[in-house]
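Q: What would this complex look like in 3D?
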Amino acid sequence: EVKLVESGGGLVQPGRSLKLSCAASGFSFNDYWMGWVRQAPGKGLEWIGEINQDSSTINYTPSLKDKFTISRDNAQNTLYLQMSKLGSEDTAIYYCARIAAIDYWGQGVMVTVSS
Amino acid sequence: DIVMTQAPLSVSVTPGESASISCRSSKSLLHSNGITYVYWYLQKPGKSPQLLIYRMSNLASGVPDRFSGSGSETDFTLKISRVEAEDVGIYYCGQLLENPYTFGAGTKLELK
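A: Here is my prediction, written as structure tokens for the whole assembly.
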């Protein structure tokens, strides 16, 4: 069974940084592109970016490219999202997802940016 | 960026009847390889999105065949026949043709 489990969310002050993790299991992690999608409260889905199997290609939505960094550790079957200079507009549920068809999504982790 | 426009924003359906959701892209989603990179997802209340349809018309694993996808290069339709209570939620279309991937605003399906 494919499982994606995000962690690392919580309350963070504006301007600070936060790193999310996504533990993958049930499939060959290093065979897949992986990515992140977020959803602000009561809003739709927003693509953040994706990373290929050997981390040689990383794509970001342009508006987040200078704030967010995606990485992975294939030995640990883990995907990461490093977020910096956080603002209230970054308050959202963050989902990790298996790409190709975005066929599997994690349960999501809430990030709240507030003083 | 490719803009995905869904209609309607909400739909109310009597159980057992059918429903259709439309999605239009601002650019052709037909790749030169012949694949149309439009996808449909359902987000049930309080849950993560789940894949329903991939590459315009292919049913994802475990999805009931009451769901079907069709369309052209820029106009797409998700059809749900014989709507059931478990189909309630928000439906999103998305394009995975080019980065940044984008999604429609969502269509909320409710039961009458």
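A: To summarize the key features: The interface with chain B takes residues 44-47, 49-50, 59-62, 95, 99, 101-108 of chain A (CB under 8 Å). The mean pLDDT of chain A is 97.
Q: Very helpful, thank you.
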